[in-house]
Amino acid sequence: MNNHALLTDLYEFSMANGYLATLPDDRWAVFDVFFRTVPDDGSFVIAAGLAQVVDQLKDLHFTAADLAYLQSLGLYQPDFLDYLAHFHFTGTVSAMPEGTPVFAREPLLTVCAPLIQCQLIETWLLNILNHQSLIATKARRIVAAAAGRPVMEFGARRAQGPDAATYGARAAVIGGCASTSNVLAGQLFQLPVAGTMAHAWVQSFNDELTAFRSWAKVYPDSASLLVDTYDVLKSGIPNAITVFKELQAAGHQPVGIRIDSGDIAQLATAARQLLDQAGFPNAKITASNSLDEGVISSLLEQGAPLDNFGVGDKLITSGSAPVLSGVYKMAALTENGRWQPKIKLSNSRSKITLPGKKQTYRLFHPHSKTAFADVITLADEELTAPLTVTNVDPLSTFSQLTLTDFVAQPLQVPVVSKDAQPVETDVLAIQERTQKQLAQLPAATKRLVNPDAYPVYLSPKLAALQQELMKEHQQ
After folding, report:
1. How many CB atoms lie within 10 A of CB 436?
2. In the chain, at which end, N or C, are there fewer CB atoms within 10 A of the end residue's CB?
3. Which residues does the UniProt record annotate as the domain Nicotinate/nicotinamide phosphoribosyltransferase (predicted)?
4. CA pair distance 18, 28, nearest whole angstrom
């Protein structure tokens, strides 16, 4: 694991240096991570990246080389550099576990720590959570479009660097992918790995049939053949069928074929007919080549008989919406030993922050397994009915509602504290959690196109506190 202590914007160090010089050194702060918009006009984001955040916090430190570099900038006082030399994180963190569907404006993660520490971890913390949550969210959409058919993550060569490829593969599996082609990710995170062959294999032999036979000789029990190097229907499928018959005669069961170019819907339909007629109804047809949720949905709507999908660049880069704009905003600060809520105002109502220490609850009707709303509260509130709540969306037509019958499930849990439970690191277990959490959401909220707005509310105390601080700072 790399130490990310210097993966920080310069102003974070400059502010931290200034805090040490001008403010009491016992001042603590609360910062929330949240986002305001969802990629691809979706309804929610799948939380991912928490395990890496926790690992970084446990080992965050500044090396002698780090300190020498910072000193060379000529910006910082000796006592600040000495502070960094002895730095370790002493605060607490609560967060929604990886795999949780998170809605706009809900605190995904909350840091409570000395102000300087809060400031120094902002950049890399957002970098990790924004990236992995973005890819997990895109994977969820693609997997949903595949409608139960396995999706393989094939994006390593198109990712924006080695870390993006490796942690992106992890996030893709959290979002629902069945496997990855990235062997390093497989090793690091115990992920299932998958892959077939490239066109170069076929081109390396004098003819396609010899290439297929050679592959089958080496991999007789996992023969999946790439059939579009020359001509899918005239040579690829006939040669694959010849080899499949030879494998079957030798006691092996062929896996199937992959189509990576052309009109996949028509080619897959024709290939299915040829494979069935030849006695291979169980041979799988895998599609790849610049797929995303829109293309996959279109292929299946056309009736393409596809069994698997290999998805690369559009997944690993979230090509149609390549940024999750998560932010990190102060919500409270100690002054003279007492917590004071903090707010950031804006001319845009949607950018006004939520003050104070908070918790988010997912609400269910008694005896129902489907959630109907979330409520963001102050951390010390108890939710009791009746509860008059305010919609967090400033553009909502119906801003207030009274809730009378509900069961509330808290979403944030301690992940760095004396009482924290170990963070789940088994990615397949996190994937299972994702599926369970998704099953609790209304079907209309999970639509890929024009999803129904899932309501997120503010509790009465939180709404009142926000209004009070707005009036105070506008006077």
Report:
1. 10
2. C
3. 151-340
4. 15
On whether the CB atoms of residues 284 and 240 are closer than 8 A, the answer is no
The pLDDT of residue 51 is 98
User: CA-CA distance, 418 to 350, in Å (whole number)?
Assistant: 35
Q: How far apart are CA 404 and CA 406, in angstroms?
A: 7
| Contact residues for 106 (Cβ-Cβ < 8 A; gap 6+) | 34, 96, 360, 374, 376, 411, 456
CATH of 136-316, one of 3.20.20.70, 3.30.70.890, 3.40.50.1970, 3.50.50.60: 3.20.20.70
Indicate the SS3 state at residue 434.
helix
Reported as a single tens digit per residue, the pLDDT across 360-415 is: 999 999 999 999 999 999 999 989 999 999 999 877 767 889 999 999 999 999 99
Instruction: Specify the pTM.
Output: 0.96
Q: How confident is the model at residue 475 (pLDDT cuts 50, 70, 90)?
A: low
Q: Where are the domains of the chain?
A: 10-135+322-474, 136-316
User: In whole angstroms, how far apart are CA 217 and each of 194, 209, 243, 250, 375?
Assistant: 19, 12, 10, 11, 59
- Please give the Cα distance from 15 to 75 (Å, whole number): 11
CA distance 246 to 252: 9
**Number of Cα atoms under 13 Å in the Cβ half of residue 127:** 15
Backbone angles phi, psi at 226, to 5 degrees: -85, 115
Give the mean pLDDT of 8-24: 96
Q: Which residues partner with 133 through β-bridges?
A: none
